[in-house]
Design a protein that fits this description.
CATH architecture of the largest domain: 3-Layer(aba) Sandwich
Largest sheet: 6 strands, mixed
Distance between the termini: 26 Å
Oligomer: single chain
Strand content: 15-25%
Low-confidence stretches: 2-8, 14-24
Radius of gyration: 21 Å
CATH class of the largest domain: Alpha Beta
């Protein structure tokens, strides 16, 4: 789940599409990441919710954490329900958020042992990153089985591509590649991670963009990459790219729902959050984008044809982040990443 910054509310649906929308009594502002995710959220959740609640009109805006903070601090909150990445909604953000009402939202079904929460956020969807490799260049008997293989340029010579920001968990990839047990990743040993990254030498490529990461693997300019899985699966399905994904040790990056403190539509926002996270509805997003459900009772509702492309299918072999550690240490991680990247470039 990536962070984007923009602004411009978009009305979802019209009177022709949603009966009663023109005379809606309540306008609810739903805030998320736009793009392909918006195109999935609208048919999966937002339009059906309006059809079931014809006195509600939902408008869509793009998430910006600084804007949310400014709204709450000024007492002028115009957002009602927001989607955030796993870098928001922890202890440091609690003063900005309403407590999730677990009598409405099925909190116990949202796998809190895997998807960390302080009670101010509820699981929205599951995505992440994993190792993708070019099947024309990597023989089947040498396909990577984990991040140690990713960093083994003797076993499979060639370029490795990694993404260009710390929020793509490159340090985690490096430590896993150096043999750290996934359950012992935190606190991150940043010195060790940097040393492992540097061990790739000239075989390391920093992607120009998230899409560029997957495209470098598809083109063969890199034999494998640590990229967002949705970028891989898009090329696999829509461009017939010669890519395979090793889901073992894939790093999960979930999205969460939060309610800005002071919204005038708190009860309705909570109702929509409950609708999205319910066992009945949480899997519907997967019909439109390669993001999986978080509600454990929704996992078996995913279209079987979609399951091979979803991080949620491989949860038992995935790596889950320690968001509480990041909440206290993110500035230092970002500082070390910026310093290291400057040396690479």
């Amino acid at each position: 789940m990536r962070r984007l910054f923009a602004s411009a509310a978009i009305v979802i649906g019209t009177a022709a599409l949603v009966p009663g929308a023109a005379s809606a009594e309540t306008v609810l502002t739903y805030v998320s990441f736009g793009g392909a995710l918006q195109k999935a959220e609208e048919p999966a959740w937002l339009k059906p919710f309006m059809e079931a609640n014809p006195d509600v009109k939902i408008v869509y805006d793009i998430i910006d954490y600084a804007k949310l903070k400014a709204m709450v601090e000024s007492g002028n909150v115009v957002w009602d329900l927001a989607v955030v990445a796993n870098d928001f909604g922890m202890d440091s953000d609690a003063p900005l958020l309403e407590k999730i009402d677990c009598t409405l939202v099925p909190c116990s079904e949202l796998q809190p042992d895997k998807y960390m929460t302080t009670g101010y956020r509820a699981g929205h969807s599951n995505s992440g990153l994993a190792i993708g490799y070019n099947t024309n260049l990597v023989p089947a008997d040498k396909a990577p089985k984990d991040w140690k293989d990713f960093f083994d340029t003797d076993k499979v010579p060639g370029k490795r591509v990694l993404m260009n920001d710390a929020s793509s968990y490159v340090f985690e990839q490096a430590l896993l590649g150096d043999g750290v047990d996934p359950k012992q990743l935190y606190p991150l040993d940043l010195d060790r991670a940097v040393k492992k990254l540097e061990s790739l030498g000239d075989d390391l490529v920093i992607a120009p963009s998230y899409q560029g990461c997957a495209e470098l693997v598809a083109s063969g300019e890199a034999v494998m990459g640590g990229c967002w899985t949705g970028r891989f699966t898009d090329l696999m399905k829509n461009a017939n790219a010669p890519i395979a994904i090793q889901w073992n040790q894939g790093i999960v990056s979930p999205g969460y729902l939060v309610i800005p403190k002071g919204t005038k539509n708190k009860d309705l926002a909570m109702k929509l959050a409950a609708y999205i996270t319910s066992a009945e509805n949480n899997a519907k997003l997967s019909d439109y984008i390669d993001y999986g459900p978080i509600n454990e009772k929704s996992l078996d509702k995913v279209d079987p044809a979609k399951k091979p492309y979803l991080q949620s299918t491989y949860a038992d072999i995935s790596v889950f982040l320690d968001d509480a550690w990041y909440d206290k240490n993110r500035p230092e991680v970002n500082r070390r990443w910026t310093e290291w990247l400057a040396g690479v470039n």
